[in-house]
Amino acid sequence: MPLIVYGLSAWLGLAPLYIIAAVICAAVPKAKTVYILAAEYHCEEMMVASTVSMTTLVSVVSLAGWLYGLSGLATRIVVR
Do residues 53 and 29 lie in contact, with contact meaning Cβ atoms separated by under 8 Å? Predict the structure, then answer.
């Protein structure tokens, strides 16, 4: 997802600050509320818990990689 967001942001010609913000938002873990809904309706609780846990663990590595990769883009941010 962050790769798609980066591609679309660059294609649209967004400023570097907005590209970084969009990519980081796309790279953070999501869907914690899905487990609450699964528990409420007693539906696939273990699968949802496992999925949320695994995506959270993967996002740690992914987010670190994206932060490192976007660090060069951050040098082009102009402060006015």
Answer: no
Domain extent for 37: 2-74
- Separation between Cα atoms, residue 19 and residue 13, nearest integer Å: 9
Mean pLDDT estimate for the chain: 87
Burial class of residue 75, CB neighbours in 10 A (0-12, 13-18, 19+): exposed
The model's pTM: 0.72
Residue 6 inside a domain? The answer is: yes
Q: How far apart are CA 73 and CA 49, in angstroms?
A: 35
From the list 33, 32, 9, the residue with the least C-alpha distance to 22 is 9
pLDDT higher than 70, residue 56: yes
What's the total number of domains in the chain? 1
Domain annotation covers residue 79:
no
Residues 6 or more apart from 29 whose CB is under 8 A from it?
A: 52, 55, 56, 59
